[in-house]
Amino acid sequence: MFESLGNKLQDILDRVGKERQLTEAQVKAAMREIRMALLEADVNFGVAKDFVARVSEKAVGQSVEGSLTAGQTVVKLVHDELIETLGGKTIQPELKTEGNVWFMVGLQGAGKTTSTGKLAAHYKSKGRRVLLVAADTQRPAARDQLEVLAKQVGVPVLKVADGESPAETKRRVDDHLKTDFRDLVIVDTAGRLQIDEALMDQLADLQRVMQPTESLLVVDAMTGQEALNVAQTFDQRVNVTGLIITKMDGDARGGAALSARSVTGKPIYFAGTSEKIAGLDAFHPDRVAGRILGMGDVLGLIERAQQADLKAMEVKKPGDFDLEDLLLQLRQIRKMGPLGDLLKLIPGMSRALPEGFNIDEAQLQRIDAMISSMTVKERRNPKIIDGRRRKRIAAGSGHSVQDINKLLKMHEQMKDMMKMLQRMSGPGAKGMKPP
Ligand code: GDP
Known about the structure:
Elements: H1 3-16, H2 24-40, H3 45-59, H4 70-85, E1 100-106, H5 112-125, E2 130-135, H6 142-153, E3 157-159, H7 166-179, E4 184-189, H8 197-210, E5 214-220, H9 226-238, E6 242-246, H10 255-264, E7 268-272, E8 280-282, H11 285-292, H12 298-307, H13 323-335, H14 339-345, H15 349-352, H16 361-372, H17 376-380, H18 387-397, H19 401-425
Parallel strand pairs: 1-4, 1-5, 2-3, 2-4, 5-6, 6-7
Antiparallel strand pairs: 7-8
Helix pairs in contact: 1-2, 1-4, 2-3, 3-4, 4-11, 5-6, 9-10, 13-16, 16-18, 18-19
EC number: 3.6.5.4
Main location: cytoplasm
Pfam families: SRP54 (PF00448), SRP54_N (PF02881), SRP_SPB (PF02978)
């Protein structure tokens, strides 16, 4: 998500230029554009205005730091403020040793039931004893859906009956806990299609009776502007304690997370990243801010590489990036899953790749074949690959000389890009380094 906003900000800040000093006029122009970009990314107007005001205040009169350019200084300020607005650091809900009761609240379709299942799996894996309560009597299939998820995760579920009173629900939960000790009860409450007073009253009643220790508002990242109203209303009515932003894997724009967090001031605990049970991550404001600025989810990339135990993915000095490294990386990448997804995690890639870009498996195999037909000397020093060698490699790998030319050109471009990225995140640009 957030790519559109990232691109936009990057374009604007390229224009701020390389001057050493930030003038008021420059800051004003950049901020106007940033506000526009935020609005286009579906950030609520008031939130965007406040955000820009805060950055402006810090930017005017700010001397350009160290070896940063004026443009980079603004990026750093925007980046830092984005992190701050998104909550600063990663925060997780507090858990007592027992008696934890969490309410899942939100609009219908936001991903409440799915997130309930995900939380159950997450906390079960941490050794918690979870009980799920299917209290979404509003959406017809919700209770059955939760039952299926509970089975999948391996936790018990208690289904609330139509028309059951809050007192009755509480009694049933208490009864269950007497015979089957559980330290975390997660209640999937009735979803609303839109803000609905009667249903909100019902939810408030259930809350009064059950006294949840957390009320987690589930917000769909795709809802943009609407996220602010939803978050505000739920917070006023049922005192939200934390947020879960779902569908962060979609191509939603950045607005929802920023707006919901800003208006409630409540921490975003988790991000939903797929429809699957495992698709729940702790929310990392620094990573998301990096993505907003188009710097890529570098930590996400490293984590995936570590998961796959891929020491070879360690980036070398860009000047040393030879064809052997390219081959090694391509082979590792092929093991790591859908290439399009992965490439988007590389800093700058989301900007460099054309819309709808995808390298297919066959193409990777072709590149592999071409590099495999080179001698070690050629791979380490592609400069020596002259016309004669190109012909030999082409024949050896079953390709045309033109294909070899294209590959060598691509390698040169990748090398240039890596150099550029290193300059951007090098020691002189401390604040710009991905977190
Ligand atoms: P509820 O009405 O709030 O309980 O919504 P559901 O849990 O039924 O979710 C609505 C739809 O969103 C379902 O199709 C889910 O599979 C999907 N969904 C929920 N969370 C995510 C997520 O993080 N990523 C994606 N891609 N889909 C999600």
